[in-house]
């Protein structure tokens, strides 16, 4: 079997990084992308030590030219892209709807929504030329519900689910599957930033059905599945990975 060629945005930390490492262990060829050259070079070394052929391409997903170059470089190096994981995302700005500004909208939507659209645009171009592929976008449980003062982040992650459905319908006739994951609380730097402090995290754990956040590695396993031929008839779907949170309220407090 030939090694799959995998492209990952926002690959330098958290879920993106865990997914890159998981793909390296599977023997994939990997193009990792992010905004920091030094961290990218280090990650490529780490992936290489696991036996993967890997390359870092610096790209900010808010910019069309960056994403075009990223995709073109991946195809130039490995001839095709089999799996794209559009993971780059930001918690953006949080606050009251009455305080939304041009800047706070752009700080959230330009990465989470425009970045996803630009990634799909160029990945479709590449995959249509090579007979298809699998794309996994990243939403959130806040793509399915909201918290107070989360209008921008929740709005952006709801948008990613709608974009995924439209892209899946368009991709179907070209052999391109497009799905989206909706992680719940997942132990990454974003989780640490958004939850603020240990007191808040203890409270969150007490109401989570499994009384713990997910790990980036648990999210990565779901991405590998959706990216693979084992998910060959699955497209346009949202896979919630939240330890049961969206199923309801656990009723009993943590022991
Ligand atoms: N952790 C959670 O609880 C959780 C829950 C639901 C969904 N998610 C989603 O999961 C994805 C990964 O997040 P994470 O939890 O792994 O947090 P993270 O460690 O902060 O990862 C986000 C990555 O995206 C990169 N990024 C941000 N803006 C970018 C841009 N414009 N261009 C290119 N890269 C950019 C960040 O790099 P920089 O250092 O350059 O900013 C970072 O490496 C995000 O889409 C997030 O919304 C996370």
TrEMBL record:
Annotated keywords: NAD, Oxidoreductase
Keyword match Protein biosynthesis: no
EC number: 1.1.1.-
Domain Ketoreductase: 4-184
Gene Ontology molecular function: any one: oxidoreductase activity
UniProt xrefs under Gene3D superfamilies: NAD(P)-binding Rossmann-like Domain
InterPro entries reported for this sequence: KR_dom, NAD(P)-bd_dom_sf, Sc_DH/Rdtase_CS, SDR_fam
Domain of life assignment: Bacteria
UniProt entry tagged with the keyword Plastid: no
Entries under PANTHER family matching the protein: DEHYDROGENASES, SHORT CHAIN (PTHR24321), ESTRADIOL 17-BETA-DEHYDROGENASE 8-RELATED (PTHR24321:SF8)
Full protein name: SDR family NAD(P)-dependent oxidoreductase
């Amino acid at each position: 079997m030939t090694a799959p060629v995998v492209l990952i945005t926002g690959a330098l930390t958290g879920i993106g990084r865990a997914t890159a490492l998981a793909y390296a262990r599977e023997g994939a060829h990997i193009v990792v992308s992010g905004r920091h050259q030094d961290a990218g070079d280090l990650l490529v070394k780490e992936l290489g030590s696991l036996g993967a052929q890997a390359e870092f391409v610096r790209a900010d997903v808010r910019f069309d030219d960056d994403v075009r170059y990223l995709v073109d470089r991946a195809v130039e190096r490995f001839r095709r892209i089999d799996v794209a994981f559009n993971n780059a995302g930001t918690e953006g700005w949080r606050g009251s709807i009455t305080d939304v500004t041009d800047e706070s909208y752009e700080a959230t939507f330009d990465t989470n929504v425009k970045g996803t659209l630009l990634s799909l645009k160029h990945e479709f171009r590449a995959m249509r030329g090579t007979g298809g592929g699998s794309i996994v976008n990243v939403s959130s449980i806040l793509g399915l519900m909201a918290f107070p003062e989360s209008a921008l982040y929740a709005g952006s992650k709801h948008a990613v689910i709608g974009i995924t459905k439209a892209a899946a319908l368009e991709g179907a006739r070209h052999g391109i599957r497009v799905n989206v994951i909706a992680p719940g609380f997942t132990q990454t730097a974003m989780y640490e930033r958004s939850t603020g402090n240990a007191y808040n995290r203890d409270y969150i754990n007490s109401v989570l059905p499994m009384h713990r956040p997910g790990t980036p590695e648990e999210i990565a396993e779901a991405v590998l599945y959706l990216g693979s031929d084992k998910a060959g008839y699955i497209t346009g779907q949202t896979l919630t990975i939240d330890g049961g949170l969206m199923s309801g309220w656990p009723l009993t407090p943590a022991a």
